[in-house]
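Final report, results section. Input specification for complex C-07:
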Amino acid sequence: MKKKGLFSRRAFVKGGLATSFSPAVAAIARPLRKLASLDQGDSLDPLPDLGVIALNRLTFGPRPEDFGKFKKLGKTDIRRLQAFVEMQLEPGRLGGDSICEGKVKEAGLSTLNKNFTQLWADHVVAADVLRETEKEKISSMADSGDTPRPGLAKTELAKIEKGNENQLRLEPITQLENATWIRAIYSDRQLFEVLVNFWHDHFSIFGWEGKISPLFIHYDRDVIRKHALGNFREMLEDVARSPAMLVYLDNALNQSGNPNENYARELFELHTLGAENYLGTQDRKTVAGFGTGQSIGYVDGDVYEAARGFTGWRLDQGKDSKNTGQFDYFEQWHDRFQKIVLGHPLVEYQPPLKDGKDILDLLTKHPGTARYVCRKLCRRLVSNNPSNTLVEKAANVFRENLKAHDQLKQVVKTIIFSNEFRNSWGHKIKRPFEFTVGLLRATGADFSFSDPFKNNFEKTGQRLFQWRTPDGYPDFHEKWANTNSLLERWRLTDQIFLGGLPGIKIDADLIRQNIKGMSPENLISYWGHQYLGREVSIETFNAIITFLKDDKIGGKKVAGALALLFMSPDFQWS
Amino acid sequence: MNSSLTRKNFLSLIGTGIFPTFFGNIAFADNSNRDILIYVFLRGGCDALNFLPPLSGEDRKVYEEERPNLKISLTGSDALIPLDSRFGLHPSAKPLAELFQEKKLAFVHAAGLTANTRSHFEAQSLVELGTPDKKTTGSGWIARYLETIDANGDGYLPAVSLGGLNPASLLSFSHALSLNDPKRMNLVGDKSIQGAQRAALKSMYRSKNSWLHKAGQSALNALDLVESRDPNTDLIRPGIEYPKGEIGNRLKILSQLLKMGLGIQIATVDMGGWDTHKYQGVGTEGTYAKQVEQLSSALHALYSDLNDSTPNAISKKVTIVVMTEFGRRLRENANRGTDHGHGGMMMILGDHVRGGKVYGKWPGLHTDQLYERADLAVSTDFRQVLTEVIIKRLKNNRIATIFPSYSNYSALNLIDSI
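Structure output:
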């Protein structure tokens, strides 16, 4: 065995088997609590401690010290959970989040704190100017025969300049991606970060486009983060008015006469009522409730009427305006006549913005919206197929607090403090982002964002803000339990533990110290408690033991074994 | 013997000793005569009316009136390519025109999903579940097809999906391989660690049968299989150029996989970017033309790559079906784009296709003939086309299982039986 190996044969022998114990016994001995709404093929692992459940689903994954901290929060599980959630949802009680802030600062992300005006000036207007001057430069080359950069062909130059222009436009989203990773890993406000991630999926925008990227920092900070624990109606309107969404779903182009229905359709289907309340293309007058101004669901006719309602909601951009990029209501484009949405008439000649606001009100108040949004939240926080009972309970809180400034906080609490939350395990797996952040948190890795890391992570299929269509990354296990996603997780894990990715440092001493004087059996058991907060399953335990005892393996054996723990089914469940 | 495995390959596979249950797999052993189906899905709603614009008569007149800015012209450098007396092909689809003339390619116009929906996500899901009348079906149509042939992924890859996440058509089939790149089908680190890790993963993931474990098993099987086929040897025929971009890359990888002889029965390929609400472009300029160009040259490259003119050319055993969730509105919108519509089009490409013809009953573009007086109607249920391919090329009659609510099937006769 090479000296460099993190683990020597001697260490095994020294540890001996005397202190080892069988995890199988522990696993069997633990009572199997009844699981809620079991899907076919879900995990049959025993329900872990509430701390494990909470730390897996309400944070981006537990760090070794978190299990103990959770236990100290109260005398009973329920009290601990309450204390944990209250603390997480009252940012003030968590302090200044200084480690995270320090990490973000260290990363030198200059665009994060720019206000909208600066972002527009530096990344849109400046890029436009760059494009124009480069165009001139290139066309003057043709006239004079000069090359501004000797030896460069015209087409090459054009490519380079286009690159600079794009770089300028994409800088904000690039930096936000970096910051989002840092926050997910280091922030003390974990539940907040989890919910921000949820709302980014709910109001999903593809950010990696020159036109969107400069607007995305504002969208993340002043829309999603601002309202993630706040009021749904307020968030909905800020989304509707956000330059990023106006551009992404084309409402910036929506004008009277021949409206663009892209935004209106997704507003119904994805942001509020959801496809579960879509009744297709039938005549809207035939929908139950239409006559009383409360259609039970929506049809295409409602989408068209709503599209008319949002005509003129655009951004201040271009020739007939000041080009600030800000939200702008353009009266000349607005369709002033009567509309009927969900059976509810909007009279003609309403004051500015009133049509759109009325539609947002109607949608927010609709019981279908409460159910659809709450079902998604339950899926995120509890299980793949949450029970209708839980969804209804959350939806009631949603509806009872339509105007409350902390409506969404109350909904989230209702879901977390349910029996179903405490009794569900293994109906979900971590998605690639949760998996990777979870691994980095568990191992206490020192993280800074790098291109090789990004390139490897991207293959898992969940690069941040890169889902093209407006439905956001799926949250169903059916979509993530597949060969590609698992294989790329395994590869990424190996890259981190065996290959080495720039920017990621896992303390080698940590691994080495762990094994001092420990038998392989005890080592794995120790890892289980450190990183999973529970015993490793017997199958995973046996597989890693065999690996550790395999004499044919050269160096990095312990690192390879620890990697296996993160590649195992045990670490995927949540 | 499986189509994509020659006898020699088969024996060499056995020689590796990595497929303990190989012989036990009757389905794999007896599928001697089955085609491989490649199912390409154009996501976002491909504008069928600009893909196959009408070139004559009243329909042409209506088309030009409703699409003053977006119409594909009859003359000039950007003119459509005439296919027959009624329809032309988009000028950026020249590579497809070639295949059409060689009678390898057929179109079905006004084909698609009959359900009343203009939602992308719902329409895609209804198509892929194969039950236009039911949103909550628990399995995809391809998954049900694979069940009818007992495909279990033991020692071969019954289904691959190119596009990262498995599509709904494979819902409930846990042995599908979703794939980015066969060159990444390995673990990392030195050989001894890789081997031992793989053994460890096998013992973990084979110990139970949850959906997670099954996905792990499928990934591990795929690792073994792909590795045994040397994924690093480039099998693309010299001179074949796949276009750069999503669809080109995916079809290129697919070709490599098919040539590796992995026992693939069915492959799904996604191509996004068809949701052209604004500035979709005119003639050979703009977003839409670029999409058409990419798709056309990628399909052409794939077909040529598989058709090496030898008696054993893979192309003889492959049928390619292309479809989308819906077509787009007849009338262009104010932003020189088109909104969600209804009737779309399908393409069938392969050696046994009765190509060179545009199939399907043409519903017409007069207002009264349109779906809800706005969109091209659907005159051919997408299941009719798929059923014909399934019966004639996949040699499978279990249509009631694959498309449970589908009845009154009659063949369009667009493909020869095996």
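Chain B has two domains: 36-180+243-402, 186-230. Chain B touches chain A through 66 residues (CB under 8 Å). This concludes the modelling results for the funded period.
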